[in-house]
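Standup notes
- DV: blocked on the single-chain target, sequence here:
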Amino acid sequence: MCDFFVVLVDERIFGYIFSGGMRKDDRLVLKPKTNIWALVFIVLFAVAFIAGIALLAFGDNRYPLKNSVVLYSVKNVEQLKERLTVYDYYKSYPFGVEPYLLKSLPEDFVKLPAAERKKLFIKVMLPIALTVKQQFDREHMLFEKIKAKIDANKKLTLAEKRLLARGYKKYRCKTINELVVKSGSVPISLLIAQAGIESGWGKSRFAIHYNNIYGIHKKHPKPNDIVRRFKSLYDATVCYVLNLDRNPAYRRFRNARYRMGDYPNPYKLAEYLTMYSTKRKEYTRLIQHIITSNNLTAFDKLSPAGVIAEINSTIFYLLQ
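- DV (later): unblocked, structure below
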């Protein structure tokens, strides 16, 4: 730290700080009387620097709520692999930078061997899942704070009133108690498992051509045209979470999630998704099997900055 500081600070400034300093053989030599002040100054600078970094990394606004993301496109699988090694799509999260997410799967994705396709699909979906999760979690946290103020009979600010009105409209509810239950995210393991099941790990034509990896149908389907089209995998994922948050069919899912707190059990939540498929309980058991067999729960407690992607491997190393 001291060497770094000496390189950046002008020599004349050192003259003021270290008044007893002198030059000898092109090196700065300090008299014993001034060393204590040099150390004090450098220590204070170091403390201020570290405190600033800590505030950025661990402050309350670490994950600002915003809907903007940066999407990138690829022409083929080879280009996708290159992009995934270039983008360290986790390092920017603590500083609030928009994440880089794949817009659509390339057409030759379906030609990959099943095992390789699954690994690459998970690698593609993980940053998307993390992005959507932190956005919904941040929104839920703000609604919880508003509820606390209402329960304490405190006056809401104009910004809070506007946020509350948007929340009621977005989640289709009328009370703050309904809002805090309806708003919320989906465990990453559960999200990726359902995306894998519904898209055949990225093999289905709806996943390739419609970005629909969750089997979401149109609200008013027509003959031979029942599946929704999305502009990106990110948009499809937002719609998937909103569907679980708003659809009356998943009321028990939402109630169970709210009772479980910050880290709901994905295996238990899967039991409340019988209405997602005509297979009913067989479908929920399939979700649970996919989560277990692919060790997807390893991702559930990750923050976006807590993961790195290996340059030459599709294996993930968990830092936290």
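- Follow-up: The domain at 70-318 is CATH 1.10.530.10 (Lysozyme).
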